[in-house]
Amino acid sequence: MTPSNMSLAAAPASANTSPDIAASQAQLKIEGLRRPAAAEWPTPYVEVDETRLARNMQAMQARADAAGLVMFPHVKTHKSIDLAKRQLALGARGITASKPSEALVFVQAGIPSIIVAYPIVNASSLDRLLPAVKAHGTQLRTIAASEMGVDALSTAAVRHGVDIGVFLKVDVGLGRVGLKPNDPAAIAVCQKIAAAPGLHFAGLLSHAGHSYAATDSENLAAVARTEAAAITGLAAMLKGLSIDVPCLSVGATPTCLGAPLQAVDCIRPGNYVFLDGTALRLGICSADDLALSVVARVVAANDTHFIIDAGSKTMSSDRGAHGMGGNGFGIVIGADAGSGAGVWTLERMSEEHGFVPAGGRTLPLGSRVRVFPNHSCATIANFDSFVLRRDEGEVLTLPVNARSCQT
Ligand SMILES: Cc1ncc(COP(=O)(O)O)c(C=O)c1O
């Protein structure tokens, strides 16, 4: 096995593919990973390629526009005010955030409309966010999946004199947060939201994160169709009970990028801006689309491996979103001018070290590599800042503004 096809074990060619075709597909993929020599910066650092970033952002916005859907991209992917503003400039109507403290960073930056897509079950979780929402006149929507959640949101809304739109979170298959569409409690929670002081019913929201386990594009399309059918069916029932359903919101990069967009109102993809080894493995992007990589340095070598200065505190230990992933922790290529054509797999990590099986083709000590992570959202969240690399080679550093906003 050559170093090149070792790395391709994470994305095998189909069993029906002839060896010649498989070899040329592998070559194509390796070519797509090539990037200019990395900037001289202390390693390890995150590099975001501005051209690819812009292309990814524009492509998703264009998909949403063509389908008549509103974009509320999830900023947990980049946690960057600058990148959120680029998404708005392209046509996004607002953003989605994970937690109140993450949302607060973007409220203070003047983002006009925010969905906090996280189940809040105690009122005090909103005590810092709501005064800022009030001061900035931000439109705030969030989710509830329980009566306790509705009570907490209502208490907070009344306490701070803020009106909050609340979606019912519908579990369409991930099995994480939400009520099943056929659960009678779903209707009861919607009625409770509509009647609660300080709240209004915003509609239905789902996240088909289980799409990360899809095995092919038909599978992916089936997940998207099932998700849309589940929430449109529930919306029809609510309308039959005279409950207005203002918005149906779905969103996961695999279903938004790798399947036809469904007839809903709003999408909230996050990962699409950077993409990563997981998206590549799913077949929803090409190697040339990967906008984020980690530049690291070879700091040691032994008989079997070379060791790089990027371990789990740099890359994260994610094998992929929602713990669904392929082999290894990243795709490794040379990052110096004149680096050869080798491609390796980041096989395992300790906190500050990454183990790369050399496969008989080691890299010199001190040379640099570029690692395309399995899960770019989890990788950039380990950094205070990232390097944005422009086409002409100019680089600038941008802060990861909402880093470690976990409350
Ligand atoms: C509620 C919700 N919406 C949207 C997203 C965006 O998903 P992705 O990063 O796959 O696009 C996530 C990701 O975890 C999520 O939890």
TrEMBL record:
Gene3D superfamilies: Alanine racemase (3.20.20.10), D-serine dehydratase-like domain (2.40.37.20)
Keywords (A to Z) from UniProt: Lyase
Sequence intervals crossing the membrane: none
Pfam family, one: D-ser_dehydrat
Tree of life domain: Bacteria
InterPro entries in the cross-refs: Ala_racemase_N, D-amino_acid_metab_enzyme, D-ser_dehydrat-like_dom, D-ser_dehydrat-like_sf, PLP-binding_barrel
Ranges where the D-serine dehydratase-like domain occurs: 291-390
Similarity field: Belongs to the DSD1 family.
Protein name (Swiss-Prot/TrEMBL): D-serine deaminase-like pyridoxal phosphate-dependent protein
The organism of origin for this protein: Aminobacter ciceronei
